[in-house]
Structures are given as C-alpha cells and as structure tokens.
Amino acid sequence: MTLQGKTAVVTGSNSGIGLGIARALAGAGAHVVLNSFTDRDEDHALAADMAKEFGTEVRYIAADMSKGDDCRALIAKAGACDILVNNAGIQHVAPIDEFPVDKWNAIIAINLTSAFHTTAVALPMMRKAGWGRVVNIASAHGLTASPFKSAYIAAKHGVVGLSKTTALETAGQGITCNAICPGYVLTPLVEAQIPDQMKTHNMGREEVIKKVMLERQPSREFATVEQLGGTTVFLCSDAAAQITGTTISVDGGWTAM
User: Fold this and answer.
1) Cα–Cα distance between 244 and 231 in angstroms, integer?
2) What's the CA gap between 38 and 13, in Å, rounded?
3) Are residues 47 and 139 in the same domain?
4) How many domains in the chain?
5) Is 184 a catalytic site residue?
6) pTM over the 0.90 mark
7) What is the pLDDT of residues 145-190, one digit of tens each?
8) Of 54, 60, 104, 152, which residue is the catalytic one?
9) Distance (Å, whole) CA 48 – CA 77
C-alpha cells in the first residue's frame, strides 16, 4: 500500500495516536506534516528524525487546534494536502451540571470544530488533484456513551456526523472520508495511568488493566497506535476507494455489546 508522492497532514501528531498514524503514513512513503500547539526544538527534531528513518519529507508546523484561523493556516502552510487525518483531541471528566464551560468549549473546538476548519481548506486541494482521503479519529464514544464525558462524547458523535456529510459532498470525486473509532489505546498517557490505578485498586498490572481499565473492551487488550496507523494507511489505499462515509471500530468488541 504505497502512498508515494502524497502529502499527509496529521493534527495532534507529536505523540500518542497521532504520532503512530504519522509514522505509518511515512512508512508507506507519504510526505508528512506533523502538528501540535507547541513550537519546540524537539518538535522539529522529531520531524527530522522521522524523515531520516523513513526516507521521506517530514515537517512540523505548529498550530493551535482550538483556533479556527490556526487550523486553516496549518493546511495552507502545508502547501498540499492529499491526506488529512483529524486526530487532535483533549478530554475532561465531570457531571454535566458541574462541567466547566471553558472545558466544554475547548473540547468542542479541538475535537470537533478543528476538523471542520481543516477539512474546509483541504477539500479544494483534493478536488484539484482529483484524489483525497480524509480520516477522522473519532472514538468508541462516537458511537456509544459513558457518564461524565458529555463534551467528549458530543464532539466525537459530531465527528462521525461530519465524516458522513464530507463523504456525501465528495462522492464520485476521487475523495473519501471515514471515521476510525478506537476503544482504549495504549499510549504514553494511558501507560502513565496504570501505576496509579494499581495503587488505587490494590491490583497487579495485568489485573488492573483487564478488570478496571478495559472493563468495557471485551478483548481485554489495548489497541495499539501501530494498529491505528495500519487502519489509516488501508483507508488511504486504493483497496479502500469505495469505503466512504462510514466508521471503522478498533475497539476490541466494545461497540458490539
């Protein structure tokens, strides 16, 4: 599944899921634009190291996904966008009646509205090229719900809906749009939570993972960033040219329940 000559922009990609997807796309030959809201030497060094590792062009462009102008400028600065992966996201947990308004606004802006802005600028580029792939990273929480995550769940349901509309508006134009819905993924942030959960529940590592953290994931196994990267590369390939406007769950069976 070669993506030679394609340019991929991945939002929120200097760590975790976004970085895993960016690495998979670079491994398939795509030129990659990494992104986050920081603009540190290590961000640019990460891009340089990836370029050397995969033998392709990798750049880092700072943009704050909570700001519409930044989102649009990211795509403009990339210069080309054959593949757009809307991955940036944040989370906050609280009951609805106690949910801080600033947290609600930030989650909706970063998890949902940013995808609208980037897609709006990327689609004309894709139409001009006669080819394009939009992959939105939603969540199992884009298909189902849990208490105390109202903003995140509202945003991720919105991402699924936006994906369907984007697919309908681009049907027959060589462009596809789909949403990947991961369950729990083993990222550095999740890994850092395991010791605290072990102390809280007085359990060993494997027991706390299976009985507490992955209680709703029937496989009792984390998805990996490499698996999400592979799924993204597949959706960008010719094999997936007629897959559009749908969701692909990578959740160990969570949404089958």
Assistant:
1) 14
2) 11
3) yes
4) 2
5) no
6) yes
7) 999 999 999 999 999 999 999 999 999 999 999 999 999 999 998 9
8) 152
9) 18
